[in-house]
Amino acid sequence: MRRFLFVGCGNMGGAIASAAMRAIPHARITVVDPSPERAKALLPAGMAVETHPDFAKLGEARFDLGILCVKPQQFAELSPLAISVIRSGAIASIMAGVTLDALAARLGSERIARTMPNLPALVGQAMTVGVAADGLTQADRRMVATLFEAVGQFRWLSDETLIDAATAVAGSGPGYIFAFAQYMMEAAVASGMDAALADLLVRQTFRGAAELMHADPRTAEELKKAVTSKAGTTEAGLAVFEAEGALPELCLKAVAAAAQRARELSRTAAPESPRQ
Ligand SMILES: NC(=O)C1=CN([C@@H]2O[C@H](COP(=O)(O)OP(=O)(O)OC[C@H]3O[C@@H](n4cnc5c(N)ncnc54)[C@H](O)[C@@H]3O)[C@@H](O)[C@H]2O)C=CC1
Ligand SMILES: O=C(O)[C@@H]1CCC=N1
């Protein structure tokens, strides 16, 4: 039996805890969240989860893995009691921009993984990367990988500096895709469609394109060419997206800006004193 402690059960904690309950046999899940009603609403009905508003009743409890799913500011405010419970086992953080050094300094433990999942965890299709501190054992690494494989795909990174780029591409990536869908819907409405039809056309086009890209071994560029007829409509649309300074350059700039923000968050969340 694996005992998982979820610290924070909002969008991401709720999604990962739900998947763990479904996919990991004998997982025993405990959730601490000051909004237990919201937390329960985000978890599947009828599943056995112990939910607490704080750590008051957990002083003696021990866990195999604590998963930190709070915002970085909320992490900074965790009580000494919370920290002593969390560090009873291995620890996985999903917080953007909180480094292994900052985690180790605050938690007083080296059995830590810093991970970055994304919101499609809600439908079991997350992309998660992780980087392990030296103190994480092989058994801990397998436990962390098993947890994140329950919500999608998981890869270990060998270098922590890559996690900022991974955050900019995959952590934030669904937000860019949803923004693109939003603008396509707005363009469809501007072309005369009603909002419901625009919504249907864009949702199904995104779903179909994503499933094709998953199922078909051709590269994204090859698939793009398969849609594009010589002197046809796609070519006309792509000429706008691929004009100088347009989408390719915007993607480079957006990923660089998000990675830069991740680095800034790391500096803000840096430990006040270096770890011993
Ligand atoms: N939303 C996203 O797409 C992604 C978010 N992340 C990271 O996940 C973390 C959580 O993000 P969301 O789930 O979106 O936020 P959220 O606001 O939905 O969830 C945070 C939860 O933590 C709870 N909380 C606050 N203080 C607490 C405490 N002292 N003890 C226990 N629980 C406490 C809140 O009540 C809330 O339910 C952030 O650090 C973010 O960087 C990582 C990847 C993707
Ligand atoms: O926007 C953020 O900071 C978090 C991390 C990746 C997705 N959401």
TrEMBL record:
Q: Which NCBIfam families match?
A: proC
Looking at the record, the residues that make up the Pyrroline-5-carboxylate reductase dimerisation domain are 160-265
Query: Know the name of this protein?
Result: Pyrroline-5-carboxylate reductase
**Is Transport given among the entry's keywords?**
no
Q: Name one GO biological process term.
A: L-proline biosynthetic process
One GO cellular component term: cytoplasm
Q: Which InterPro entries match?
A: 6-PGluconate_DH-like_C_sf, NAD(P)-bd_dom_sf, P5C_Rdtase_cat_N, P5CR-like_CS, P5CR_dimer, Pyrroline-COOH_reductase
Q: Name one GO molecular function term.
A: pyrroline-5-carboxylate reductase activity
Q: Which reaction does it catalyse?
A: L-proline + NADP(+) = (S)-1-pyrroline-5-carboxylate + NADPH + 2 H(+); L-proline + NAD(+) = (S)-1-pyrroline-5-carboxylate + NADH + 2 H(+)
* Classification via PANTHER family: PYRROLINE-5-CARBOXYLATE REDUCTASE (PTHR11645), PYRROLINE-5-CARBOXYLATE REDUCTASE 3 (PTHR11645:SF0)
User: What family does the Swiss-Prot or TrEMBL record give for this protein?
Assistant: Belongs to the pyrroline-5-carboxylate reductase family.
> What pathway annotation does it carry?
Amino-acid biosynthesis; L-proline biosynthesis; L-proline from L-glutamate 5-semialdehyde: step 1/1
EC number assigned by the record: 1.5.1.2
Q: What does this protein do?
A: Catalyzes the reduction of 1-pyrroline-5-carboxylate (PCA) to L-proline.
Domain of life assignment: Bacteria
| Top-level enzyme category | oxidoreductase
* Every Pyrroline-5-carboxylate reductase catalytic N-terminal domain range: 6-82
Presence of keyword Oxidoreductase: yes
Location in the cell: Cytoplasm
- Predominant location: cytoplasm
Q: Which organism is it from?
A: Paracoccus versutus (Thiobacillus versutus)
Which keywords accompany this UniProt record? Answer: Amino-acid biosynthesis, Cytoplasm, NADP, Oxidoreductase, Proline biosynthesis
